[in-house]
Amino acid sequence: KxxxxxxxxxxxxxxxxxxxxxxxxxxxxxxxxAGRRAPVDAVSFATKxxxxxxxxxxxxxxxxxxISAEIMKIHHQKHHQAYVNNFNIAQEKYLDAEAKxxxxxxxxxxxxxxxxxxxxxxHSIFWTNLAPPTCGGGEAPTGxxxxxxxxxxxxxxxxxxxxxxxxxxxxGSGWGWLGYDKAAKKLxxxxxxxxxxxxxxxxxxxxxIDVWEHAYYLQYKNMRPDYLKAIWKVVNWRNVAERxxxxxx
Length: 249
Known about the structure:
This protein has 9 helices and 3 strands. By secondary structure, it is mainly alpha-helical. It has a 3-stranded antiparallel beta sheet with strand order 2-1-3. Helix 1 packs antiparallel against helix 4 and helix 3 runs antiparallel to helix 4 (about 105-130). The longest helix is centred in the middle third of the chain and has 32 residues, at about 70-100. The protein is globular, with a radius of gyration of 18 Å. The N and C termini lie far apart (about 35 Å).
């Protein structure tokens, strides 16, 4: 049984999961993360850092009628779980290859690590970016985040219109994102193909909308724009504001 809606500890857990998994993906690919390369101890890393499927901070049916319980259950239990499972398998193989000095195998596994690790990161953010209307979903942002959106895009509606248009245009499968550019100190809209995590672009993820067909097709069919128009009614702007405050600090 899933926890009741608005479980604050699970919203916080989602943020920590995303941060930890991003670190794993980048350290295993020997790419600089947070300005440095993280050393990998094959034994301790394999035994301590396996990914796991996070609980949702609300019931499967809590986002209805915007997103059906059927979609949420399949999306969470099947799709997200598959990314977790495949990430752990690729991670174990990678660390075994690293321990043996098998560089060829290490390189060949990087695609699976990026794809499945990215899927885990993205979905862990996505679940916390949403909330039932009874728990604040759809309530307009306030404070610093509201000011930043108005300054960058003109208004919340203008932002939503631009975000939806850009994200609807994603070819095939991918994600639409609101991110924070630390260098420019401003908000930015971006898209990523497949399960690429936004962090590889240099932006800090604040709000991600999944436009893989498994996120909406059972309910919205081929009408991706209708899904994008409706989902704003369950966006958890409180969570986005927390991410924005953390990104600026």
